[in-house]
Amino acid sequence: MKFITDVMLGRLAKWLRIMGYDTLYYNNISDKNIIDIALTENRALLTKDKGICLIKTVKDTVFYVKSEVLENQILEVANYYKLDILKHAFKRCIRCNIPLEDYKIDDTMHTTYKTCPMCKRLYWRGSHVECMLKTLQDLSSQIRHD
Questions:
Q1: Which residue of 42, 72, 88, 91 lies most exposed, with the fewest beta carbons within 10 A?
Q2: What are the tens digits of pLDDT across the range 6-33?
Q3: Pick from 28, 5, 27: which is nearest to 17 by CA?
């Protein structure tokens, strides 16, 4: 599943990337451009803009996110698209949206690292990841699996 979010859903875009979903986000993009990208790249368009929802060409690809609360936004999208929010977690760069690659610093180190091949950002499983994982686990228990 691939997504593109409008400018009002930047935090949701980041969390979809944390969950491992290919999610485009631009902080300055016109409605026309976001619609063109969604249609051209076969992406679900997540929006807070009711006007976009009324455009017939995107009727089948647009999803209006009702909540202002991030956790509820995640639940709305996960329930609608039946997402497994844990299965692919921590496999994408939260800045670039690029799949992460293994990175070895030293043979003697037992910590597993990942890196983004584009921005070179380094990722490791620290306490910050454990906090995000706990949040995802809590949310996962609230997702309808019907």
A1: 42
A2: 999 999 999 999 999 999 999 999 999 9
A3: 5
